[in-house]
Design goal:
Blueprint (H helix, E strand, L loop, with lengths): L4 H6 L4 H6 L11 E10 L3 H13 L5 E4 L15 E2 L7 H8 L1 H25 L10 E5 L2 H17 L6 E3 L1 H7 L7 E5 L3 E2 L2 H15 L2 E3 L6 E5 L2 E5 L3 E10 L19 E10 L4 H7 L6 E4 L5 E5 L5 E5 L3 E2 L11 H14 L8 E11 L6 E4 L5 E5 L5 H17 L23 H22 L3 H9 L1
Length: about 475
Amino acid sequence: MPTGASEDMARNYSFWQHKYGTYRPNTPLSEGIHTADLLIVGAGYTGLTTAREVKLNHPKLNVMVLEANEIGFGASGRNGGFNMALFGMEPETTVLRWGKQKAREAQEYMQKAVAYVHELIVSEGLDSDYEHTGMWRVAYTERQEKRLKKTYRLLCDLTKEGSYFFYQQEQVREKLHAPHIRAAIYEPQTGILDPCKHVRALKHLAEKAGACIYENSAVTDIRRTPEGIVVKTPDATVHTKKLVLATNAWTHTLPGPRKLRSRQRAVWTYQIVSEPLTKDEWETLGWRDRMSIEDNRQLVHYLRITKCGRITMGGGSIGFEYGDAMDKWQDPGVWQDLEAHFRWLFPSLKNKKIYYKWGGAVSANFDMVPEIGFIGDHNIIYSTGCIGHGVSLTQLNGRLIADLVSGVDSELSRFWIVNRKAIPVPPGNLLPFIGVKAITGALKGVDWYEEREFQSNRRQTSIT
């Protein structure tokens, strides 16, 4: 990509797109009438995995994929790149809403999802900058540490032995020089990747299997007819037997079945990335294990090392999309807060410059649990509600959806998120606005209460 960082930020490219360089998208779907056995809308992790898996199962099927932008523009190319096992928001929330048995099944599914991604990268030799370095979940204060220990005990109850370990502060400081971290849950069987490189590698795998992929081909209409399902783009019409809607955070903007508008809304999360660290700076940090990190605040921060020697950090405050504009990709206030947190967390990097800033939308539904569902009969399938933890989830969901497309009764297709009775998003904008403001206000209040002894220090860090 010939442009510089400032130009790419202005074009709403993620850091990963900027870092990727020149990319030549596939041509749009040509003008005219087309037919398909299976049409997939959305060429992210879910859609591309579904396409590949269906073609591997049924090589003779005509599988088409439509992407509204270029592959890597959506969440699959701008997330943090965490191949992680968190399901929904918190294990406590899943237990409260669905019970311990379903929470146990969900954690098992997520561990399978992480392994699926890791094994695919290794077996296919994908250039995804993958590192299987594990993950920490950290606490900054005594109150957060108490919650972290409760979460650790619950996770140990829900998963097989050896899935999680608890680090006290002295163990933390042996592996990372970040003075404000008091304790951590260590999850060894997780990893990090370059999300844009990975999704474009999945594109090549799907094409190798025989799927036909068209970029810059936005869908303008979806409707049923006596002969099947008809999907239109600005220049073309596709008649298909089955349809998979793998658009996640953009699902409510799709034309067609009204049910789609009540499944989820877009929540915006923001990220920054530093300039490359020097050898001395890395030595000062002691971050040799290269594990990814997420804190256990209510409005979490997430951070990791890149292959090119930088630190990315995201999270904190969020943006919420009430309508269909999908234009909240930048928020200078949140970026400023992230920079302040970065310097507070790593005092030795207080003068390190921030190189790049971006944002992206994730799919959030009303009860904060992923959902795979049908519209009418089983010929239209949708997937939403990744809650920002979708790198591994969406790819195993693609394998699951391939079973649903084929009508296969499998262990995956029986997972309880399939066609579950989800709570719909309230209609209009007023009720969601009130609900979001109430929830985010409460979460911010909890974080303020648990971290109030740090607030003045954080403000001073931001000023200096």
